[in-house]
Amino acid sequence: MCATHDCLKGNATRRGCELDLFLPHKAGSLDCTFCLDCVKACPRDAIGILPVLPARELVRDLPRSSVGRFAARPDLGALALVFTGAAFAAAFAMVRPDQARPFAGLLVAALALAFAVSPRESRARLALALVPLGLTMWAGHWIFHLVTGAGAPVSPSTLVGLELILLDGGLLVSLYAAWRVARASAAFLAWATVAAGLWICGVWIFLEPMPMRGMGL
Questions:
Q1: Which of 29, 96, 137, 216 would give a disulfide with 87, using CB separation of 3.0 to 4.6 Å?
Q2: Which helix (H) or strand (E) holds 115?
């Protein structure tokens, strides 16, 4: 048992955690800025950067030093929905914004149903489960801009294939996270429907002809 808490307080040669994150009560990296001051200060090499499974932080609801428990943070769930929704809204603007309304209406209805059938304590965590899908949509969107803007010699089919692989991976991770949170229940089916609907929108956007994409802006 450590008695000096150098990782938190620092020592004569290294400063400790400036966020006052007491590591024995720290779960995961969502409280961390990755400055690694604690790693440098620990004289026992008891702290490090360790590999974890994708979405592990989303399915575990342990108390965190500053964030607390996801179940008690509806604001984080709302932020996750904004982050994910913005990824698809921005991509829709690249193609035909006028066609986004029917998709948006259906997705809002599915999301309302998902909230209705989900227990209150799991709603924020299920909303966070959509983050991997939103992240891969952002990634595919900006890869398109970076590659085409730089004039890189990449064929359209290769670029679209990469975007679809990213989006597929995001869907699988989001479904896994939702399954771990909701298990076999109506809540999982509802949130899986939302994720699948977003995935369909993303695939449709990425399969649009390249000259069309980007003209919406």
A1: 137
A2: helix 100-117
Q: What is the pTM of this model?
A: 0.80
Distances (CA, A) of 58 to 121, 184, 191, 215: 14, 17, 15, 36
Q: Which two tokens stand for residue 163?
A: 């975007």
Entry field: residues in the chain: 217
Mean pLDDT for 173-201 is 92
CB 164 within 8 A of CB 136: no
Q: Can you give 24-50 as a three-state secondary structure string?
A: HHCCCCCCCCCCCHHHHHCCCCCCCCC
CB atoms within 10 A of CB 131: 23
Least confident among 10-14, 66-70, 79-83: 66-70
Distances (CA, A) of 143 to 117, 140, 147: 36, 5, 6
Higher-confidence position of 165 and 151: 165
Dihedral of alpha carbons 138, 144, 149, 151, sign: positive
Determine contact, residues 126/68, Cβ cutoff 8 Å.
Answer: no
Give residues with Cβ within 8 angstroms of 169, minimum separation 6. Answer: 132, 136
